[in-house]
Amino acid sequence: MTSDARLLTALRNAGDSFSSISELAEKIGEPSSRVISLLEDLRKLGFTIEERPHTGFRLVATPDALLPDDLKSRLKSKIIGGEILVFQETESTNSVAERMARNGSREGLVVFAETQTKGRGRMGRKWISPKGKGLWFSVMLRPRFAPTAVTRLTILTAVAVSQAIRDTTRLDARIKWPNDILVNGKKVAGILTDMLSDADTIKHAIIGIGVDVRCAPQDFPPEVRAIATSLEHEANAKFSRPELAARILSLMDVYYAKAHGRFQEIVDEWANFSSSLGKRAHVTVGTRRIEGTVQALDADGALLVRCDSGRIEKIVGGDLVLERAQG
Ligand code: BTN
């Protein structure tokens, strides 16, 4: 951790209490003179640090900008967030993370961008990423399960994103299998999982996450305006992007540990958040249209649909369309 991140951690851990320069110096292992200049740097970055004469300093407010040190100081993760990069602009955070994975980066790398010029969605779709209005980021992992179980990553991420949205906004976030997060029936977030594998090992997986935090309806292209929304628009309130980002990463870290051996616990969480479970739906896989009732998730994250004939179909990918209730 950098000195800035250690200082922010120390201030955060102190909560509402004031810490003296010498206490802070001891906590972060730096001389007092360095602490004074670090406090000044943090103020320049937009942190509000209150000073009370003869008592000390405390953190009062943090900026909405995505800053690696701020994000790190909010995390207690074991793997995810070991390295955090923030770009002001990039083509696609998935592409940056992919390049870094090929060059040997450690799993847990997280790449954010304030805006993307070529953001990608599933099925070759474009993903709009207006500057500062959302969370556009990718997490690189090297899971030890088989490539056939890669959907577990999308599922655990969907559960983490939904839970984090609920925790930070109180909105009723729901998962539409496999990768959409909905609020009031409209999409607020999407997940795009890419992987490089051979027959039985995943070399690396890149989980791309896009969360529309404060996009206005006119930010979306006309063709998706009816089905897309943002958290602030739905709640009519302001939210902190770093707080939401850190919550997502912390939960992903917990669920990633469970994905090796205790995936059923994630499946149980998923069932609580699913917008599709028990509903009539159809999905097109290649040229086949499968129609039935959404039954469950299997141990690898595939969707089990009970067809009208009673046969259970296992669906690994595709666009699920929920049928409207009749009557
Ligand atoms: C979808 O719902 O179709 C998936 C959208 C995924 C978007 C994110 S934004 C960060 C990352 N970089 C990309 O180019 N795409 C993903």
Question: How large is the share of residues in beta strands?
Answer: 25-35%
The strand line-up of the biggest sheet is 3-4-5-9-8-7-6
CATH level 4 superfamily of the largest domain? Bira Bifunctional Protein, Domain 2
Terminal Cα separation, in Å? Answer: 58 Å
SSE succession? HHHEEHEHEEHEEEEHHHEEEEE
User: What name is given to the CATH topology of the largest domain?
Assistant: BirA Bifunctional Protein, domain 2
| Average of per-residue pLDDT values | 95
Give the domain tally.
3
> Radius of gyration, rounded?
21 Å
Specify the overall morphology: elongated
Q: Percent range for helical residues?
A: 25-40%
CATH architecture identity of the largest domain: 2-Layer Sandwich
Structural class: alpha+beta
* Level-1 CATH class name of the largest domain: Alpha Beta
Low-confidence stretches: none
Number of helices: 9
Bound molecules: biotin
Q: How would you sum up the major sheet? A: 7 strands, mixed
Beta strands, count? 14
What does this structure look like?
By secondary structure, this protein is an alpha+beta fold. The protein has 3 domains: 3-61, Orthogonal Bundle (Arc Repressor Mutant, subunit A); 68-273, 2-Layer Sandwich (BirA Bifunctional Protein, domain 2), CATH 3.30.930.10; 280-322, SH3 type barrels (Roll), CATH 2.30.30. Helix content is 32%, strand content 28%. It is built from 9 helices and 14 strands. It has a 7-stranded mixed sheet with strand order 3-4-5-9-8-7-6, with helices on both faces. Helix 2 (21-28) crosses helix 3 and helix 6 packs antiparallel against helix 8 (241-259). The protein is elongated, with a radius of gyration of 21 Å. Bound molecules: biotin. Biotin binds next to helix 5, strand 5, strand 8 and strand 9.
